[in-house]
Amino acid sequence: MKTSETCKTGGSETGGLPAEERVKRGNDKRIFVNRSLTLENIKCYGFDMDYTLAIYKSPEFETMGFELIRDRLVSVGYPHELLRYTYDPSFPTRGLVIDTLFGNLLKVDSNGNILVCSHGFYFLKSYDIKKFYPNKFIQRHDTDRFHNLSTLFNLSETYLYACLMDFFTRCSRYENLTTGFQHGDLLMTFRSMFQDVRDAMDHIHNNGVLKDRTIKNLEKFVEKIPNLPYFLTRIKDVAKVFLATNSDYMYTEAIMRYLLETCVTTSGPRKPWRSYFDLIVVDTKKPQFFGEGTVLRQVDTDTGKLRIGTYTGDLQHGTVYSGGSSDVICDLLKVQGKDILYVGDHIFGDILKSKKRQGWKTFLVVPELTKELEVWEKKRGLFEELKRLDVFLAELHKNVDSTDPEILDIQYRMKVLTYRMDVAYSQMGSLLRSGSRQTLFSSQLLRYADLYSTSCINLVHYPLNYLFLAPPVLMAHEMTSSDNTTDMEAVI
Amino acid sequence: MKTSETCKTGGSETGGLPAEERVKRGNDKRIFVNRSLTLENIKCYGFDMDYTLAIYKSPEFETMGFELIRDRLVSVGYPHELLRYTYDPSFPTRGLVIDTLFGNLLKVDSNGNILVCSHGFYFLKSYDIKKFYPNKFIQRHDTDRFHNLSTLFNLSETYLYACLMDFFTRCSRYENLTTGFQHGDLLMTFRSMFQDVRDAMDHIHNNGVLKDRTIKNLEKFVEKIPNLPYFLTRIKDVAKVFLATNSDYMYTEAIMRYLLETCVTTSGPRKPWRSYFDLIVVDTKKPQFFGEGTVLRQVDTDTGKLRIGTYTGDLQHGTVYSGGSSDVICDLLKVQGKDILYVGDHIFGDILKSKKRQGWKTFLVVPELTKELEVWEKKRGLFEELKRLDVFLAELHKNVDSTDPEILDIQYRMKVLTYRMDVAYSQMGSLLRSGSRQTLFSSQLLRYADLYSTSCINLVHYPLNYLFLAPPVLMAHEMTSSDNTTDMEAVI
Amino acid sequence: MKTSETCKTGGSETGGLPAEERVKRGNDKRIFVNRSLTLENIKCYGFDMDYTLAIYKSPEFETMGFELIRDRLVSVGYPHELLRYTYDPSFPTRGLVIDTLFGNLLKVDSNGNILVCSHGFYFLKSYDIKKFYPNKFIQRHDTDRFHNLSTLFNLSETYLYACLMDFFTRCSRYENLTTGFQHGDLLMTFRSMFQDVRDAMDHIHNNGVLKDRTIKNLEKFVEKIPNLPYFLTRIKDVAKVFLATNSDYMYTEAIMRYLLETCVTTSGPRKPWRSYFDLIVVDTKKPQFFGEGTVLRQVDTDTGKLRIGTYTGDLQHGTVYSGGSSDVICDLLKVQGKDILYVGDHIFGDILKSKKRQGWKTFLVVPELTKELEVWEKKRGLFEELKRLDVFLAELHKNVDSTDPEILDIQYRMKVLTYRMDVAYSQMGSLLRSGSRQTLFSSQLLRYADLYSTSCINLVHYPLNYLFLAPPVLMAHEMTSSDNTTDMEAVI
Amino acid sequence: MKTSETCKTGGSETGGLPAEERVKRGNDKRIFVNRSLTLENIKCYGFDMDYTLAIYKSPEFETMGFELIRDRLVSVGYPHELLRYTYDPSFPTRGLVIDTLFGNLLKVDSNGNILVCSHGFYFLKSYDIKKFYPNKFIQRHDTDRFHNLSTLFNLSETYLYACLMDFFTRCSRYENLTTGFQHGDLLMTFRSMFQDVRDAMDHIHNNGVLKDRTIKNLEKFVEKIPNLPYFLTRIKDVAKVFLATNSDYMYTEAIMRYLLETCVTTSGPRKPWRSYFDLIVVDTKKPQFFGEGTVLRQVDTDTGKLRIGTYTGDLQHGTVYSGGSSDVICDLLKVQGKDILYVGDHIFGDILKSKKRQGWKTFLVVPELTKELEVWEKKRGLFEELKRLDVFLAELHKNVDSTDPEILDIQYRMKVLTYRMDVAYSQMGSLLRSGSRQTLFSSQLLRYADLYSTSCINLVHYPLNYLFLAPPVLMAHEMTSSDNTTDMEAVI
Asked: What are the positions of the active site (chains A, B, C, D) (predicted)?
């Protein structure tokens, strides 16, 4: 009897975990809280599929994606030498911004200040960054020029763009210009190269090759969460459950069947995957789904095709729909926005939009959190040292000015510490911070995700009437007002 | 003969304050920090005028504004009974949102969740709120329906709108409808009443009556910051200084002369007000000023009129300009965005826009902070009690469900505590919080203002190479990761 | 008994005109037809006021407008020498396009091809035009750059803009640049000068000076149509009648009282002007009025102020409304769009919009038509000669190529003929054509106006069941198909 | 062995046609003129490919298109009964407007007045039309609701939409609603059915099946213009020639090779098709091509793939490009907009846009013109009768009112005549008129096409220095002014 294939079907007590596991449970099993939330009030759980219920194995999945778009570029005319590049998971970080004018990858904070900047695999020094961005700042709203790479699907693309910059910069056949490369009569702007990568991405998504390969080798690419059937059964006992995915029906069917019907269960017969949900919606076109939406149609689950016309009847169990909108879901399930906890991995399409436009409760899945927690644990000393130096620097400033050698020395040491901390995560650093500064991704996570965790399955470790309690947020003046001894700002 | 009229012209030591004042200095003299900032790096200080350099006396100024728009409404046909209403500073709070569909004043958090809701002077209970807003949530981006009242100039308008609701609701001549009042053939929608108030506001601003009355009685309406000349002189020694106001030149001239030329100075002769600035820009049309801007023209300071054509020469000292944009200012002063500390009172027009679009450093003046600090000091006990009950509630949830009488009792006590805390600020509560939850205004302050304080003059208490140090922000998973004992989320 | 003051109160027979007048009636008493229309089907007549019922005397009115904006420019800093310019009615033509980039006045056809181009009072030769517009074509949809001057109110502005170009081009203090004038540090772009003129226009409209002067001297500025009371009474007998003007109530009251209450009538007592209409709407904000419109409010005719709230009752006779929309009018009068004949002078705001968005029948008042008809009558010979030369040229082309001296000679003669025809109208030529080519204005008139005439009063000459018959339009292939002898295209 | 496959390679004299043909040449060989144009001034000829150089055989091509989208609909779930419908060329007319709200096909004039209205194959009477459109008028700018079917590619779609209405209206399983059909829980709105047809259209275009079948059976679907090689050679001698098509390269290659390389020529060897053009641009994305355009890339003519990067060198003969814009074409060919005569079949994408945005000279190919001319010739009597009745009606109106039986009788006779004329063209009537009123298509043709003809090849019948002379357009007041005898409007 294969154990890793055994589906957990529940323990006797509420928590669902034997006592000895309680101690072992590490931080990657925990759920973190930005805004308090009582599970007992949740009348409806919604799930995205990709990277939420279906965890794609890393780096196998990104590697496949990278190779497909790399090969596509070569097939449309890019040099064969590109085939020598292979995916390196230690380079890219999610949440970067691409500057299509100068071909740089940027890590920025929520206000558009640049934290890290690379061109290909070369990391620009502060001095060089200022040549491109005199204010070390970008106008993020210029979406014509700057593109966010905020999903896990963007990782292969991020890396490939760096490969292209690397290759053409080094290749002697091409002349380096400010906004691209020249080869004889041919001008390749960074912008057109970005467009080519985007087109290649679209190509492999639209022609189905990425999905086909995934489905043909599910064991290789999709992680099977052992106790997922138990987890879904457990929450379906107390609340409504829906699946809302941008994927099409055939792919959803293949993935969900693999996740929910192919494991051995210790109790009772296997159930069809659709029976785990009150409502299944495919082709959701998020984020549009959280606004005006599209027409809701029924899916013929035998053929995978859409039924013609729009379904106007009551919700029928096991029925699969295509399209629709978040409003339609609330109507069909008879729930209000704030009764819903929506679990997804896409900070913009899943979390920001459902929160901002519909007032849903949100749970962000952040697979990178396992590594983030691990590094934070190990390198926290560097962060504490940074904090100490910061305070020391503030003290120094009371007496000397910034040209003082001691100040310059501390600033240098802080840069080194920041760099050492960053590379402990990956070459482009942490998803969430650069030294003591937080990334755009991190500030969006804070604003829009009520809860976050490495995996949605971690909900299984909490009783379903649990109150997730956020520590109260104090503003600067509230923190310091009653507390004169640690008054950092007070000079005199 | 030192009176309140004497201008402070500087002390000998860096801090600018005699030793005995250091002890006395309370929190309302302090500057609070959201993001670290080294004054030494600031090469340029910019100031808004209204509510920044020119503090309008409260409630005298709001009272005048209220009466002018109230009288205007009566003069365009509103019932004379409205004249009985007088401005009550204890009611309105800045930063409310008006719902023009249902005529309610709303206090919301950054995601659009409703914290407080009033109709006229009647405060809706949670149950009533849900009748209007089933999800206790508004779609803030529907700016056609919802209007932010985020400036101090909006206070009189906020109060007047409540008065209108109050009057017509009680007046027996009018029938109460869901979206307005009916009187015979006449339908007054809440929307059209809002439009009438807006038009009245525009009227008193455009016909100059508000300005005229202010200028005719400056002593009554404008606070004279005693050491403003000293302060401006001091920063002009180390950096460039500009004034950027949406007001016109004649009004600016009157106000600034009053502030800078009519006080007795202990050292040296009075200087003309314009000599305190490297650049003076009026009619700035912020927030447009931080984007595409308008044509930059010179003002003839003798006549107050614009010169024709666009000035293309170098910056000339004492020259006054009209229009332009933040880019033009940077060019004229030869500074980069992040070299500028911009001090203003308008969270949207001054702070959010300068930060988000131009990467400027920002200092938000929050006059209400004096009171906020005072109440916080006195009522902090309530907040601590709220926190305790929150933790207690979380503990209870582990064992019992939410229908348990103990839980209901605690929830009731928390509501009472929140209410008691709120009314300690004003009837609509604090500018920054409602119980333990933060307002939209508060979250914008956190995101966009690097520094904030009761008054800009508080900069005088810090040496000009001061490093304002923000406490590092930890995310939920970083806080708990190394610290197992206070693990609030861990159940089992 | 003053004859010119005597109001026509009706004749006995249907046509309303004594027999002897029938003979004398010239073309300026006729109504011209673009699309057939049966008056008998018209259930509702709508009138604009300015330039439709109230004919402003030319050039007195334009002269006043010109002087007011000229003086305003000088008062905001433009050189005093400008005061020497006086309005010359022989220069401007309505319907020109201003190019704010190059400061030129353009006459264009419906596709944007340039017919005439002037810079100040200097007319550019074909060769010069191509320097600015290589394709002799403008992209009319670039409304940021090109502005239509299509109303009679624009005439003073048109002339003033030409004066400015003239003055600064000649004035030795200013250097001529491609896009403006330079004087020391001062750059005056053509665009900013256009903006200044626009601002001055807005100023004299908003501060009421233009209206005040008009009202104070109605005899000087407003033509009294002798039989207007008779005309309105006559159509009100058979249909509903409304007035829809963008003017405010006080101005409308003054003008309409002058037009309808101050003349001696031969039959019966004078009636109040409002009794001539079923519905009076002021502040209509056309063209917005024909789309989403604004809130409909009642006007208190004693005070001229708006009543608060929105009127929801039935239509009451003599009631004056403010705002609203064309849909609201149809509801109040219980008529459909195609039952309405709307009479106005503004090709865009009155005619194009009411036709295109609401399907109304339209009648364009074209005061210039008197002169256009007169010149056409006199100079028709030139046009016939142009036609002859055109045919001759086509013949020549069959045998020789375009470098042939005979062809060049004919082309030169055609240019001369076109010029002679143009200047017979005014310096900028006819409102409707340049030689054999039609203007943008002319093509809009054709497309959107069902009827057009010198004055709306000409309706009085037609019985109210008249069928205005448009000659059928044949396309080129329909004209030639059955008619082989005059086949102009067939070469061989 | 001269067959229809023999390419005409030119005659000796200019006209290119032997003398005896001159006489025989009928109207379908003629080019009609809306605005005068001298061929000698044309320095550059541009051609669209589909329906311009490549004439698709009718009804074979539309039949194939119809069957493909019909089958697609059935394959996505529409009832199998639909397969019984076959394409009927006698029903649809190009240029109709679909009302997706009510499911009607509308024929409208340029102002949106309804001329003909059908629901399925049922033609609505005037009385019924008013139930849907009380004003017999549509707001054409509401493009969300109304869709133009203005290309020849839309014919199959037009017919299929009528078939769907017909089927579901008759089918007893479905209930007829105002905006769709209901079947149990399933609501099929007219809008969603329109969307399904559109999606099916996109499907057969995107998956290439339409192109594949065309290429596999070129003889069946594409007409070979006999003297096309001669024609292109002839104009290439005197001007530049380009091809600009929205089709991709592989399809263009197949079609153009068939048209230009597979015929037997009488003189000299066959030339490769690309040698007939100075510039070949595929994937043009018209109408976007006439505005901002897309990136210009080179096509590798061996593989059909795009070269990476953007071509920046000089124009090379025989090179094929993808994308670009009309501006880029002018640069590459060194011509101005008005030197270009652009020949296309798409009134909006080819003609309106090139004329309005770029000032090009335009030649609209209207294949239906052969039939239009034929019917016009035959049925002109009906039109003359209509005209006579119109005049008679106008006369009658002078004496009697519209309830007079004689008037009613004439109106009835005019309706019958209009109907008889319409059906002589097809069930939906003429492309260009309904009785004496012109269609939207007709008025766009008049405004934007300088020349029009049944086929572009008709240019071969005119010498290349020909002057196409348009008859001068007179306005109503110009026509009548000197011509008192036929004064139709003058009553008295």
From this structure: 48, 50
C-alpha dihedral sign at D102, D103, D104, D109: positive
Residue type, B347: I
- The sheet with strand D186-189 has its strands ordered as A310-311, D186-189, D180-183, D175-176
Structure tokens at C198: 């626009």
Verify whether the Cβ–Cβ distance C27 to D397 is below 8 Å: no
Residue C331 distance to chain B (closest CA, Å): 16
Q: Which chain A residue is nearest to residue B111, measuring alpha carbons?
A: A356
pLDDT confidence of D487, banded at 50, 70, 90? very low
CA distances from C218 to C69, C221, C256, C259 (A): 20, 5, 11, 10
Flag whether C touches D (3+ CB pairs, 8 A cutoff).
yes
Q: Work out the angle between the directed axes of helices D209-216 and D249-261 (0-180°, nearest 10).
A: 20
CA dihedral B324, B330, B331, B335 (to 10 degrees): 170
From chain D, the residues in CB contact with A193 under 8 A are: 308
The model's pTM: 0.87
* Inter-CA distances, B405 with B396, B401, B412, C423, Å: 11, 10, 10, 95
pLDDT exceeds cutoff 50 at A486: no
* Residue range B85-94, pLDDT digits in tens: 999 999 999 9
Secondary structure class of D17 (helix, strand, coil): coil
C438 within 8 A of C432, measured Cβ to Cβ: yes
Size of interface A-B (CB pairs under 8 A): 212
Question: How near does any CA of chain A get to the CA of B17, in Å?
Answer: 9
Band (D425; pLDDT cuts 50, 70, 90): very high
Q: Which of D277, D389, D290 is nearest to D337 (CA)?
A: D290
Check: CB of residue A185 under 8 Å from CB of residue A174.
no
What are residue A422's phi and psi, to 5 degrees? Answer: -55, -50
Contact C76 B300 (CB under 8 A): no
Chain B: residue whose CA lies nearest to A438: B473
Contact predicate C210/C60, CB 8 Å? no
Residue C267 pLDDT > 60 = no
Alpha helices in A288-363 (DSSP H): 326-333, 353-358
**Is the predicted pLDDT of residue A322 greater than 60, yes or no?**
yes
Of A348-352, C35-39, D311-315, D333-337, least confident by mean pLDDT is D311-315
Tokens of A313: 């009847």
Neighbours of C402 (CB within 10 A): 15
On whether the CB atoms of residues C396 and D40 are closer than 8 A, the answer is no
Residues C6-31 pLDDT 10s:
444 443 333 444 444 443 457 889 99
Q: How far apart are CA C33 and CA C364, in angstroms?
A: 11
pLDDT at B58: 94
Q: Does the annotation place A166 within a ligand binding site?
A: no
Contact check, Cβ <8 Å, D188/A76: no
D196 neighbourhood in chain A, CB within 8 Å: 308
Quote ipTM for the complex.
0.89
C326 phi/psi in degrees, rounded to 5: -60, -35
Location of structure tokens 């001759």: C392
DSSP assignments along D253-288, one per residue: HHHHHHHHHSSEESSS----GGGG-SEEEE---TTG
Give D265's pLDDT tier (boundaries 50, 70, 90).
Answer: low
Grade residue C265 by pLDDT with cuts at 50, 70 and 90: low
Q: Is the peptide bond before D89 cis (omega within 30 degrees of 0)?
A: no
| Chain centroid, CA A106 distance in Å | 17
* Residue C17 DSSP SS3: coil
Q: At what angle do helices A60-75 and A154-170 cross, to 10 degrees?
A: 50
